[in-house]
Amino acid sequence: MAASYKYLFGPVPSRRLGRSLGIDVTPFKTCSFDCVFCQCGCTTKLVTERGEFIVFEEVCDEIGRWLKADGQADVITFAGSGEPTLYSRLGELIDFIKARTAIPVIVLSNGTLLHRIAVRDELLRADKVKVSLSAWDNESFQKINRPAPGLSFEQVLAGEREFRAEFKGELWLEVFLMEGVNARPEQVKKIAAAVAGIRPDKIHLNTAVRPPAETDIQPVAKEKLEALCGVFTPRAEVIASFSTTAGSAIKLSAEKVLDLIRRHPATAAQLAQNFGVDPATVSPFLEDPRLQIEVRGGEAYYKCR
Ligand code: SF4
Q1: 243-265: per-residue pLDDT in tens?
Q2: Interatomic CA distance for residues 238 and 269, integer angstroms
Q3: Ligand 1 nearest atom to the CA of residue 146, by list position
Q4: pTM to 2 decimal places
Q5: What pLDDT digit, counting tens, does each position of 279-296 carry?
Q6: How does pLDDT run across 215-229, given as a tens digit for each residue?
Q7: Is the CB of 82 under 6 A from ligand 1?
Q8: How far is the CA of 36 from the centre of ligand 1 (A)?
Q9: Residue 35, ligand 1, Cβ within 6 A
Q10: Which residue has its alpha carbon closest to ligand 1 atom 6?
Q11: Distance of CA 9 to CAs 79, 108, 187, 259, 274, Å?
Q12: Which domains occur in the chain, in start order?
């Protein structure tokens, strides 16, 4: 993809989604949560009010140009450096895409605004929605997700349940587990009980393999995470990138590498896997002065400055 897009990134290869074109509709870093585990860093704008943060016509223009010039992706994903449902014209944007292409649309959301009918109505237009739940009560919710004032665990849980009842597409749910925070068996059981009430089609377990917002957050070991999959109904699957899974080869550019790192800090090996190239091909792009290194678990992760 040419470097002339402000709101689109990728397509990036994803194990679960295939080639995913990302759309980022919130400025860095606008979110209703300030999760201790966030890979984008700390939230600078903690809000629940929706807004037209980016000019609707500009992002439509980018999507139109991309469809004309490339248009090759397995999925179009609303994700990036904040909470996409905070964008007040998200529903219109999904309509815009669906009127022009058959590529499925997925929204990755923290689920905080799903207690609002208007937000649920907009998300119903997507093909897949992924929400999250990593706490089991209001105390753990405040500690882990550090929500915007006024948000409660019960409210988020009720919104996600309500959405499930209305949504005919596939609903995925991500649980982020951290050692010493929410990964004790009795804590995971409580999270699993709350998740079961939402009835997602798939459950993904993630952990802090990549550098999180708070550097003292520790990942759960792969074996333990795998053992915890069976606590969930339906059985969860581990999505944390502990291991190597080659993606399809994608032509590299400095902007593509930067776009990916901006949203997900990564090691050189992970970047090579993501792009389906060997590490030597990635190395020159990592000299970029806009990048810095953070060592985590003995591995050097590249982050944006
Ligand atoms: S992990 Fe997601 S929901 Fe949590 S602060 Fe980061 S962007 Fe927001």
Answers
A1: 444 444 456 778 778 877 877 78
A2: 19
A3: 5
A4: 0.84
A5: 777 887 888 888 888 877
A6: 899 999 999 999 999
A7: yes
A8: 9
A9: yes
A10: 38
A11: 10, 15, 36, 6, 14
A12: 8-243 (3.20.20.70), 257-305 (1.10.10.10)
